[in-house]
Design a protein that fits this description.
The protein has 246 residues and is an alpha/beta fold. Helix content is 30%, strand content 33%. The protein has two domains: 179 residues, Rossmann fold, CATH 3.40.50; 58 residues, S-adenosyl-L-methionine-dependent methyltransferases (N-terminal domain of TfIIb). A seven-stranded mixed sheet has the order 3-2-1-4-5-11-10, sandwiched between helices. The chain has a four-stranded antiparallel sheet with strand order 6-7-8-9, covered by helices on one side. Helix 4 links the parallel strand 2 and strand 3. Helix 2 packs across helix 3 and helix 5 crosses helix 7. The longest helix has 14 residues. Keywords: Methyltransferase, Transferase. This is SAM-dependent methyltransferase. GO terms for molecular function: methyltransferase activity. Pfam families: Methyltransf_25.
């Protein structure tokens, strides 16, 4: 099955919900919200929880995701909340049909799913094109410490009444890359369980590489933070945050 097809069915159950509070708080500290500037594009919006948080904070939100299954969940969530959100299926490597936005975000290390640094640079260029002048782009990625030291050997198991999941992570061959192997056991309508397997590959780069790629895309400046806080990265920081300005 395609990446995230089965993951979408259990994603919200296994996701640490407190992370959405952290992403929201970080965003609100770094995204100026005015009546004139409020159009926000959320890349890799997934099941729409973060999109809804942005809408509740007063932004006009469009969510983009590659997974149709994820977007089905997002649309149901927005309808239940009676929120005016727009969701589009698409690839962040091509944003040419999406119009202009004041702000773009890309969280949950989604940039790390790009195959190589050329694709990361292509995403940055696409974001630059859809941003209005003085627009802000915020994204997070795994630190090299996370991919090299923290994640290899990681194992997570989840058991519920209607599904079970085994999640193991290993170091991959390319520098600063990891492989997540996911096995799901989903209960069918007749009560039996069916096994599904997915493989998710992620890769990050050193800070200088991201710096160069942002500059090549046209961004005139960026600020760097770590682990949801307004502080510089440390040697053992797990997640880097970039706040780039067009």
């Amino acid at each position: 099955m395609a990446a995230y097809e089965m993951f979408a069915k259990v994603y919200d159950s296994i996701m640490d919900q407190t992370l959405y509070d952290k992403w929201t708080d970080f965003s609100l500290r770094h995204l100026p919200k005015t009546a004139e500037r409020r159009k926000l594009l959320e890349l890799a919006c997934g099941t729409g929880i973060q999109s809804l948080r942005f809408a509740e904070a007063g932004f006009d939100v469009t969510g983009l995701d590659l997974s149709a299954e994820m977007l089905k969940v997002a649309e149901k969530r927005a309808a239940a909340a009676k929120a005016d959100l727009v969701f589009k299926q698409g690839d962040m490597l091509d944003l040419s049909q999406l119009g202009k936005y004041d702000f773009v975000t890309c969280y949950a290390d989604s940039i790390c799913y790009m195959q190589d640094e050329a694709e990361v640079g292509d995403v940055f260029s696409e974001v630059y094109k859809v941003l209005c002048e003085d627009g802000v782009f915020i994204f997070d990625v795994h630190s090299t410490y996370q991919t090299d030291k923290h994640y290899p050997g990681f194992s997570y198991h989840e058991n519920a009444d209607d599904f079970a999941m085994v999640w193991d992570t290993y170091a991959d061959q390319a520098p600063h890359s990891i492989v997540h192997e996911l096995t799901f056991f989903m209960q069918d309508s007749d009560g039996r369980f069916t096994r599904y397997d997915e493989v998710h590959e992620e890769r990050t780069y050193d800070i200088l590489t991201y710096d160069i790629l942002l500059e090549q895309a046209g961004f005139r400046s960026f600020r760097l933070y770590a682990d949801f806080k307004d502080q510089k990265p440390k040697a053992d920081s797990l997640r880097w945050f970039f706040v780039a300005k067009k």
